[in-house]
Every structure is written in C-alpha cells, then in structure tokens.
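hi!! sorry for the late reply, been swamped w classes. u asked for the two structures so here they r. pasted raw, havent cleaned anything up. first the sequence of the first protein and right below it the tokens
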Amino acid sequence: MGPPPLATLSPQIAMTMTITSIFILSFCCGCASAATFQPRPQAGPFKKMYAFGDSYTDTGNTGSATGPSGFNYVSNLPYGRTFFHHSTNRYSDGRLVIDFAAQSLSLPYLPPYLRHINSNQKSSSMGVNFAVAGSTAIIHSFFVKNNLTLNITPQSLQNQLTWFNNFLESQGCKGGGGPTTTTTTTQCNAAINGALFWVGEIGANDYAYTIGSTVSGTTIQQLAIKSVTGFLQALLTKGAKYIVVQGLPTTGCLPLALALAPENDRDDMGCVASVNKQSYSHNAVLQSKLQDLRARFPHAVIVYADYWNACRNVMKNSAKYGFKEPFKACCGAGGGPYNFQAFSACGSPSSTSCPDPSHYINWDGVHLTEAMYKVLADSFLNGSFSHPPFQSLLTRNKHAAPGLYY
C-alpha cells in the first residue's frame, strides 16, 4: 500500500515548519566539546563508526554562540543534565541514538569533527561524527538561488562528505578512497574497512526552509533524496560495506508543530497529520532508492532504520515505555498541553525543566529526551524497526561479536 498523498499545508502549518527549522540552525567552530568515553574492553563488532546527519545526530559540531534566538541555550544546562551533567552541545538532556549505538557496539562516543580539526588531532582511531545541526540534504547553493537563505546554516550533506574526505586524507588516504585514490590502499583500507557508517535523519530542514516559497514539496523531495542517494553512492564507491540509513521521524508529533497547527489537522497518533504525511511520503521514496543501491552494491549491507514507524510505535504505546507525557516538552515555558513557546526556549530565563525527563518523549519542543532516544536505539539495534534487521550487519561482518548492550 502506497503512502498517503501530501496534504496542502495551511498558513499555520507553514509557520510551524518555518519555526521548526530553528531547532537545527546553530553552527559554530568554537563550541564546547562533548566528553569522550573509553569503550568497553571487549572487542566490538566494528572497528570504528562514522556518523552524518543533523541535530538529531550532532554530538558537538554546533553550539549556541552564533545560533538563532529560538534555541541559543544549547551550550548551557539544562542541556546535557541527565547523563553528562553539563552541556555537550547535544540538543537533548543526554545521549542521542548515535551515542547508544556506539555504546552498544563497544565504541566510544564519537567526537565531533570540528573538535578533531581544531585540536589538531592527527588520528581518531574509532570514528568521527560529521553531523551538523541545521544541515540540509540539498546543497546550500540551491537555497541561495531561490532566495531562501535567511538564518539558514550553509552546511549540507555535501559539506559533510567533504569533511569526511578531508578526514580520510588526514589519515593518509589521499584522494578520499575509491577508484581515484592517489596513494596506496593501505591507509584507505585502515580508515574504511570494518567501519559502520551511520547516516542519521536528514532532509527535514529542506522542507522547512522552503515552506511558504514557490518551491514545491515535490521538488524538495526529489532533490533531497537525489542528494542522499548520491552521498550514499559516494560512500559505497569508497568501499563502505556496512551502512545504516535513518528515515525522517514523525515531525508532526513535535510540541512545536502541535502548538501551532489547527486542532482539526490531526492523525490517529494525535499528531499533525499534514506534516507526518510529508515525512512518510519522503521515506517511502527513500526506501525505494535504497533498494536500487542494494542491487548495485551487493557486497554491502544497507540497513534502513525506520524512524517514522519506530516513533509511531512509541506514540501509540507511550505508557508501555514508561512515558507519561507523549506531547509535552520537558524543558520549555507556557505550561498547557505542550509546554512550548517559540520565544521562551529551553534554557532561557523564563523556561523551566521537568523533574524527571525520563517520563517525557520530547525534551525542548523539537528534540527528544535521552529516554526516547534510548527506546529508538533499541528499536533499531534489537527490535523490528530496521530493514533488514541490524543483526544482518553483524552476520556479514566477520569481526562481529554476539550481543548488544547498553
């Protein structure tokens, strides 16, 4: 059964998606770094991991120093309060899906790329995180051409690929790997073989930045997915054999969207139907393209992490997972059913944070709590929301060790 048609967005939803874009807009080179933790002593199934994406995956490539007024407190508490007990520039109270994935695979939490280059480190033996809050799938020049550059970060998935190529060169892999590599393959193999490539959700910003413009949602879908598939093809050509690709989440379930959307625009989850349908449609096309890549690169395992349906499962069964507040932001202002006010962001003087974030799905109105990210990570790594199952990566990896743990 195909995805439902895209609904026409009302002015209120247009405002919702426009403001939603600020949750991933901050970018700075001098922001605070995340703590790095040593892996468990046991040998893990993968030698290293590389991550890409936006603020749902960014572990410190962005911060609040030059960010927008909506979420410019990410570099301070209460961000990071639950696990790190200080801000690490993660847009949450604690760990993200990528952190739980690293921990489960006996890898350290991935250092952000900008910390790697700013500290003049010559190697990062167990991986790097290239994800950037505010990143788009489509290259930034597209938004410039269409006069859609107001308060938009210039970083795109293409920039992250460039950063990755630069990183490979810093490891002695001249030419970035692949058929055009100008050095011996030893250094490239050391950097790529046995690595897990985790591509976090990417594309939500592309839709948000163009709401209210003459650029259609269909155009954004086509260009964003073309960019993602081109990015994946580049990784596969370099020799990547183990890749996880996350789809878009149920962005219509964010308190921000719910607070601004008309009450008659709801789906069976109680979320904004028109926004969720857009993400669902995007994911359906993305999955088709992943199947094409699997046929072209049969040596690789490409796992689709079904973010949308994993979120839906939790939203429909929130009490089962220990969540008492499926729609309300833990950290925010205004109270009411959503506890969200666009100009009283989490961390601002007028905001407060709840006593126990583990009872909340949403952290600050647009980002999720550590508790929710943990449930989602388990859904991908050990549950039924990865296709093929995540275990298939371990089966194909000759270095795989049994059992995943947190």
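now the second protein. again sequence first, tokens right under
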Amino acid sequence: MKMVIHSRLCTQLPVYHGIFMKHKKKSFSMFRGVYVQFRNFHSFKQKIQINGEALYPRWFSVAPMMGWTDNHYRTLARLMSKHAWLYTEMVVAETIVHQKDDLDRFLAFSVEQHPVVLQIGGSNLKNLAKAAELANFYSFDEINLNCGCPSDKVAGHGCFGASLMFNPKLVGDAMSTIAANSDIPVSVKCRIGVDYRDSYNELCDFISEVSSRSPTKHFIIHARKALLNGLSPAANRKVPPLKYEYYFALLRDFPELQFTLNGGITSIEQVKRLMQH
C-alpha cells in the first residue's frame, strides 16, 4: 500500500528543469530510493551526534514565533516534550551587535532547553558575522536565517525576511558568513516563493544557489508563498494555498540536503499521514 501511495505521489510532483543537467538525464526512477532513505532517517529514534553532543533527531520542531517563543515559552515547551527542537524568536543581527553588553536579555537560556535553534534576521554581512560570533558564547545547536517572514516591518524594508528570496546570492553569502563565524550548523527558513515568483523552478534555483554558495544543508520550508502587499502576517499564514508537493519534490531533487516541512500542520494524525509519503 505504501508503494502505491508513493508511486502516485511521484507522478504528481513538479519537476525542476535543472535536474536534467544535474543527473545527466537519468531516469527519475533513481529517486524512488530517496523516499525510503528519508523515512529510514527520520524513523531513527536514537539520539544523533551534532558537534559532539547527543541530540534527538529533528522529528518535530516548535517554529519561531515573534512574541511567543521566548525563554519562558521554551522552558514550558521543554517540560511537555524532551524530543522537540525549539526555536527562539527572531533576533535581528543588529540587535545582537548593538546590545552586546546586554545579550543575556536576548540569548540566554537554560541548558535543559537543548536542542535550541537561534533564528536571526538581517542581510548586512558584517553584522551577521559579528552576531554569529557573539552567539557562540551561548551554545545554541544551530543558527537559522529568517527568509520567510512577510511582515511589512520586516520584508518591506528589503533588509531581511521573505524579500531575501528575491536575492539568493545574497542569502548564500550571508549563510557562508554566518557559518564562517560560528561553531554550529546553519539553516534557512523560507517560503516556497514570494509574490509572483512562486514557481517550483524558482524555488529550486533559490535552494541550489544558497546551498552551493554556503555550507547550508538544512532548509525549513513553509509550504506557502508569501504575499508582501495586501495581506497581514496572520493572513499570510492561512490565505496562500499550501503546496506540500513542492516539499516532497525537493526531497527528490536534492537528496543531499535536509528539508523540514512547515505550515498548516495542526495535529498528530496529519503528521502521521504526511510521514507515510
């Protein structure tokens, strides 16, 4: 039954034009094993080693939420689950740099919260480098760059958030800069597209450019596009249609990378159905 579901899914996924050059026009049947490998990886329930520390694999994460996932919220979340990966609220790189004498206010957390991901926002390479360097002291398990927030307070200024998806080269350079000044893995959280630039090929071009220009191997994909004008941040989390098929196609077309699905997942039953794919 699972193979039937899998076969039908494969026939419905979008195709990336660059895949023909990447794999020298080999049959797409070669990707059949990718899903099996993905399921095997995520069904691995023992802890994994990241930078010498034993952590649970990324089965489940609590997404970064401004005004919510602060230190107190994460403490409560950890009491409810020892497995979940927790994210900070987004912290702007300039805030970290300018508040370097009061960083505990923004970055401190208890050791019981591990694994914890620091999400930062920004595009100024100098400030991102300094922010990553300062964050090293706090022993986060990963640094994530926000490329998905559609708020007019963020994206409208062209400095960070979803608007960064218009400039994948800059994102790649930003990730390379963060990684060069950090001792931990780096990741990107993004949408499947922004405004009219929402085709699967454009998403693949973004992933390919960022991963080729930096050591980024992990992308968190919010499976909706972002509309920078006309929708509030809350509406942007509900109105643009979900396209989970983009996520599953990324698993097929970029087997060397890791992708985490985000958006519209509200129940354990839904998680189980998605994992069957």
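hope this helps!! also noticed smth abt the second:
The chain has one domain: 2-275.
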